[in-house]
Amino acid sequence: MYEVLMYDGGVYRSDELYELIDDVGGVVINKSRSQQMLMVTMAIPGEEVPVLERFCHEIGGITKEVPLAGTEIAVVGPTLGRHHMPHPICDIAEQLRQLGAITVVMGLARGRGKERSQIMAEEKAIINEYDAAIFMLGNFKSCVESKKHLFDQIEKPVVLVTGAKPEGLDQDCEAIISGIGRKSERMRRPEERKKLDETAEATVQVVKDRRRVIEEDPLFVHPAEIKQLLEDIDAVSYNLRPAPIVLHLDGLRVKIPYKEHVKELEEIQIYGRRLGDVAEIKPSRISDSSTIIRILSRSEVEYKDQV
């Protein structure tokens, strides 16, 4: 089983770090360099973690857990207008990034208004591409309660963030965090930072619960292993978009056009099988320039073999 760690330190001997990750059968999920400082998120076989930790300490860096690494999370507001897209949404997204998640801020096309707020089927399909969704609604209790339809039928876990604590929504989402409403400034005060920590902790727990469900019927192959194979594709290796491959709990987002590369992706060999036989490959609902790969579980692959 892979474990995810983050190295935080200097660029000194970073080439050796990458070689060691490769030698132990790990994979680099993400890396970020700022002048002489380097942050590397990596997925490592569990038994090799002490080896990596010792080496990182030897070269003057530290390792830390990033419980949300390998996830992509949507932070959703009713609209992109300044009335509904306040600073706390950005603060929440940044807090989750510090724990390793890739976050996307999203506004609904028709979310404005207590009585008029809507969510389109296309928007729900986009949100369902992510591992979890943070819905931030507002300060007024009755308004929040009337907008619960915005996250009805969302298949992925939902964390609801509001100002006033709503009633009767406990069964409609996995967690509710109250006390974070619309603000015209950043969340800097100690009590506000505690609320951000509370939101992050709730999201971590939601992701842990989903990982536990997935482990009951494990994926045929870990997403990090497929990421290694995808990096050899020219369209990926020469891709200039940020994070051309994004890991999900049950698959990956590859930022290459589906129509042009679906055949190439289906023919990738993994453990003696075609990727198309052990995963669902489909275009992203966001744009034609991204492809979603959902890895089948072992029981799903066995069932396909029998059929």
Structural commentary:
With 307 residues, the protein is an alpha/beta fold. It has 3 domains: 2-65, Alpha-Beta Plaits; 72-214, Rossmann fold (3-Layer(aba) Sandwich), CATH 3.40.50; 223-306. Helices cover 35% and strands 25% of the residues. It has helices at residues 14-23, 49-58, 87-98, 121-127, 141-146, 190-216, 223-230, 234-237, 258-266, 275-278, 298-306, and strands spanning 2-10, 27-34, 37-45, 62-65, 72-77, 102-107, 132-136, 158-161, 175-177, 245-248, 251-254, 269-270, 273-274, 279-283, 291-295. The strands form 4 sheets. A 5-stranded parallel β-sheet has the order 6-5-7-8-9, covered by helices on one side. A 4-stranded antiparallel β-sheet has the order 2-3-1-4. A 4-stranded antiparallel β-sheet has the order 10-11-15-14. The protein is globular, with a radius of gyration of 20 Å. The mean pLDDT is 90.
What order do the helices and strands come in, and which of them pair?
Elements: E1 2-10, H1 14-23, E2 27-34, E3 37-45, H2 49-58, E4 62-65, E5 72-77, H3 87-98, E6 102-107, H4 121-127, E7 132-136, H5 141-146, E8 158-161, E9 175-177, H6 190-216, H7 223-230, H8 234-237, E10 245-248, E11 251-254, H9 258-266, E12 269-270, E13 273-274, H10 275-278, E14 279-283, E15 291-295, H11 298-306
Parallel strand pairs: 5-6, 5-7, 7-8, 8-9
Antiparallel strand pairs: 1-3, 1-4, 2-3, 10-11, 11-15, 12-13, 14-15
User: How does the helix and strand content classify structurally?
Assistant: alpha/beta
The residue fraction in helices comes out at: 25-40%
Q: What share of the residues does DSSP label as strand, in percent?
A: 15-25%
Please tell me the total number of domains.
3
